[in-house]
# Entry
Amino acid sequence: MKKIFSFLCLFMVVTAMMSCSSAKEEKGTSETGNAALDNIFERKSVRTYLNKGVEKEKIDLMLRAGMAAPSGKDVRPWEFVVVTDRARLDSMAAALPYAKMLTQARNAIVVCGDSARSSYWYLDCSAATQNILLAAESLGLGAVWTAAYPYEDRMQVVRKYTGLPENILPLCVIPFGYPATKENPKQKFDEKKIHYNQY
Ligand SMILES: Cc1cc2nc3c(=O)[nH]c(=O)nc-3n(C[C@H](O)[C@H](O)[C@H](O)COP(=O)(O)O)c2cc1C
# Structure
């Protein structure tokens, strides 16, 4: 009787493990056992948000992550504008063709760079942006990179609603919040893109 019970327990555990791994396969993800890598593989652009505020601690962590990025000659030419004002978010949404999701977001981070301090400003700010997106993912938030640079018209819009001085250029606007929909990361790995020693 005891043996049958043990067998049944083992059977249930194995069945549960199998259904869990097939759920992962459906999602198209496979956990690596490495939290940082899992977070990289889980990140995706999220464009729909709940009408729910994001805690200040989480916003601070996203900004800290941004500033942890590498930068050429360690100049750190970035500046971050956190936009929480409804009117500014809506005005930017109305004028930016590919950032309409700002109407739903309660917050956005504008990642900017000082072009006078570094000719690498947009590269350094891109690294900072990716760190912010990864931090958002790891905190259970959804976020998306929406382009300002290099489009002069979009940069003007962001400049207008965030009061940027002349030398500070906006790279992108990152609307973020608690996701309203469940998105799956795209599967992008492609062996054909890898070249050893020669193309
Ligand atoms: C330089 C850059 C500019 C982007 N601009 C926009 C944008 O203006 N609006 C938008 O909805 N998504 C924008 N995206 C997000 C991309 O559409 C998205 O990263 C891509 O479709 C891949 O999907 P994933 O982020 O879910 O992996 C941009 C991404 C990058 C890197």
